[in-house]
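Batch job 17 of 40 flagged for manual review because the log was empty.
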Amino acid sequence: MDPAQSITWRKSSLSGANGDNCVEVTTDLPGLVGVRDSKNPSGPVLAFTADQWRSFLLRTKTGDFDA
């Protein structure tokens, strides 16, 4: 079985009507969270552990990456 066929990608509900310029995430990779560019679904995928992804989300929500 091709692993790419069994993966479900999700976009944020805040991504807008067109769904352009978004990232998509999946938790269908064993032990990892996958992230890709919605405009390039066959392009590269960044992979993070669940702990790394939780840390990133927390830091994003608390403004650690705000300019």
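Reviewer: the log was empty due to a logging misconfiguration, but the result itself is present. Strands lie at 10-11, 23-29, 32-37, 46-49. Unflagging and moving on to job 18.
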